Amino acid sequence: MEGEKVKKRYDRVAPIYDGLEWLMERAKFSTWREELFERVRGEISDGRLLEVGVGTGKNIPYYPDGLDLHAIDFSQKMLNRAEERALKVGRDVNLTQMDMEDLGYEDDHFDVMISTCVFCSVPAPVRGLKELKRVCKPSGRIYMLEHMRPRMIVIRNLMDYFNWVSLYLLGENINRKTMRNIEKANLEVIEENDLWLDIFKEVVLSP
Questions:
Q1: Is 67:49 a contact under the CB 8 Å cutoff?
Q2: Among candidate residues 116, 97, 128, the one with its CA nearest the CA of residue 172
Q3: How far apart (Å, rounded) are the C-alpha atoms in residues 151 and 8?
Q4: What is the Cα–Cα distance from 157 to 86, expressed in whole angstroms?
Q5: Are 32 and 200 in contact (CB under 8 A)?
Q6: How far apart are CA 174 and CA 59, in angstroms?
Q7: Predicted confidence (pLDDT) per residue in 99-112, tens digit
Q8: What would the pLDDT profile of 6-45 be if each residue is shown by its tens digit?
Q9: Sign of torsion, CA 59 60 66 72?
Q10: Which of 170, 183, 191, 207 could bond 136 through an S-S bridge, CB–CB 3.0 to 4.6 Å?
Q11: Which CATH number fits the domain 2-206, given the four candidates 3.30.70.1170, 3.90.230.10, 3.50.50.60, 3.40.50.150?
Q12: pLDDT at 158
């Protein structure tokens, strides 16, 4: 029930989603995306890549060459936008509508996995993280850009108070305890880098 509610919310905002996030993209996030994929490009030279929660495809222009590219989202209308972007930049990406809490791939299937601001909207985030662990090869890596509930009490309380606004407009919880969820999913943290305070982080995981 919760998953269907979230999917309908993203279907509703798909046509204007990029506009809603325009300021954040201009301020910093596009730079963080580019830097993340520069790192992936330097560390992974072949194999399969999966992006979970591809959304409108903002990461697609940064995908490394030479990889078998896959991306999923549970909103078909968001995937339609991602397909338009993939065609525009000339990237061959296997785009599939799929729930990341129940990934339709065999165990140990992907060499590299990507998520950017995804686990704020997954109804059962620990279940989703366990699915990443399952389909990632033992030697693989999971790269994440995520926003977190901060330690600073004033900001934390503000995020808790205004969470309903973000949830209604974008379908995103801005106060998720994602690092704790990663621990619950038994994923190993290779790196944890603060990008802006301790709210936005780059995290590298091993299954």
A1: yes
A2: 116
A3: 32
A4: 39
A5: yes
A6: 21
A7: 999 999 999 999 99
A8: 788 788 888 888 777 767 777 788 899 999 999 999 888 8
A9: positive
A10: 207
A11: 3.40.50.150
A12: 73
Sole residue written with tokens 């030279």: 45
Question: Cα separations (Å) of 111 from 47, 125, 147?
Answer: 6, 21, 24
For tokens 């109804």, name the residue. 123
Spatial distance between the Cα atoms of 16 and 159, rounded to a whole number of angstroms? 23
